[in-house]
Amino acid sequence: MLFLSAWYPVEWDSMFGLFVLKHARAAARKCEVYVLHVAASHDRKLNISQRQEDGLTELIIYYQARQGIAGKLLNLLRWARAYHKGYRMMKKQWGLPMVTHVNILTRTALPALLMKFFHRIPYIITEHWSRYLPRQNYRFSPLHRWLTRYAIKKASDFTTVSEKLGKAMTEKKFSDSYTILPNVVETDLFRISFQEKKAEKPKKTIVHISCFEEKSKNLGGLLKAVKQLSEIRQDFMLRMVGTGEDFDNTVNLASELGLLNTFVVFDGLKEGEELAKVLSAADLSVLTSHYETFGIVVYESLACGVPVLVTDVADFSETIAPEMGMVVPVAAVSDMVGALDRILDNLDTYNPEHLRKFVVEQYSEEAVSNQLLQLYQKALAGEY
Questions:
Q1: Is the domain covering 2-184+364-381 a CATH 3.40.50.1980 domain?
Q2: What is the pLDDT of residues 319-353, one digit of tens each?
Q3: Is the pTM for the entire model greater than 0.85?
Q4: Of 113, 232, 254, 347, whose CB is crowded by the most CB atoms within 10 A?
């Protein structure tokens, strides 16, 4: 099994495309998995990195990228050269794959198309990118649109991480059908703990985790909701976890609203066990985005036994039942305030074990690995 992905964790960004790595690890539970990833770097010439862990072998090739209009063509040529080099190394060390799994269109599908044409190797596609959603209003060139449609048409199976993303792509006529392949939640990492400590806290803890990008995450709307909530009750604290391009602006807005270090604190970036501890110790997790394709932090919260308040993005209106939390309209501050107030008053009605059970059954590594195996077997059998 060969994974090709436009996004994948690299030396300078361990979070970039982490969801693809999690899919690869899930697949490695059932078969040998190889990853070939080509990444642009602005400070190095052609460089190769290779590592292996638990049935997963990664080959990452870095090429030096250039800025400017003229650099675009040069970068495309260097990208193709790097992929060709990676393909030759892969063929020599591992042999040809039985199935290729393409992640994030469109350019990444080209090597898979060539392998299908020359070696009859089937491939499947998984799309994660939010640019197809109506709110993004992304403009595709005619060539880009045609190539995307062609790559999907030739795939053994086309999958998206949510129903909303799949529908958006069919409405834009990129595909006629799709299969849902959810992202993986690390249920061994995100687990129920610290429950006994919640009763001891003087204030109820609300947590928000994001990449601090205002356009998608609606950080301002969340802070405005918290401001209004603070005028109703004072028994809570919002912890905002993460960093990103709008981090400073968000801190400044919290200060202007009189919330900084009174009702809102900023914890910065947290990962791994440290992030899991923050979630487990929370009473409520909130996501107030304008758009999402999956929203994994919501399911990580549920895996920790923590109820959620989310806006109606991704597939939350179908997956978040009333016993798990509440779903409110996008950008509706007054609805956020009302929902926050109601959930904080009824925290003891949410069953942590029930919340976690739902995630383990639907989104754990084992659950997703079974889906992946079925997709690969279907591709090999030519059932498409």
A1: no
A2: 999 999 999 999 899 999 999 999 999 999 999 99
A3: yes
A4: 254
